[in-house]
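Mods, move this if it's the wrong board.
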Amino acid sequence: MAEDRQDAVDNKGAKQSPAAVAPSTSKARSKQPAAASLIGSSLAGRLLRRVPGGSFAERQLEKVEARVVQRLKQRLDAAGQPSQVSVLAVSVSADAQHGAAGGLPGNLLRHLLERSQEPRTKQQAEVEYFTLLLRELVPDEARILAGLSDGVCYPVIDVLIASKFSIVSRPTVECVSTVGKSAGVQAPDLTPDYVRHLRRLGLLDIVPQQTPEEQQYQILETDSEVRRAVEAAHKAGKRSQILRRSIRMSAVGQRLWAVCKISGE
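Not the wrong board. Structure tokens:
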């Protein structure tokens, strides 16, 4: 009987072939982790998910991010460059870089300098830079870029104040423009903040007046914030001046838009 039990154990083990036990190597190779979204893994992404409507804004930003990466990947493929390297580069979030560098400014700088020594093409450097810029935007700011993408200039005004006996004036209200409403932003009252932010990122320029439409500037001068600033200056015995200028997309913004090729879709 002991021999019969041993035969049964041997037969049971023989039924389990190595092919049945070992995992499929082809399936193991095919299941590679996808690159994590920069938006979702960043501090901005975590904060967006905590506010009303933040999840929708996060999804829209992730779509823009994915589109930029895909477009730049196609450009690298067409140029015969290894696109896998560029996609991997932009999949590393700022949080991951801080973690790899120990979180200290000196360590982070050394980490960046070490990465700068790695072989990279101009296209790969643009991938990282444009992705960084897009991570800084909110959907309304993306709409403003879209409104400027065809080369149209929009009016913008500042309110300057100065004492009656001074030749030096300072701005008290800045970047009031029609570009927000024209682009269909969801929060038009934040247009001055959007314009300042886009200008700080180098995606738009404020230049001397390019638009001759007098009516557009007159509309801006009736803005409630502009009127309050002018009235406050007069009550304080100061002079006020309206500075008229124009907004247009910068050279960097034009390059980013051309890489994304949004208008061609």
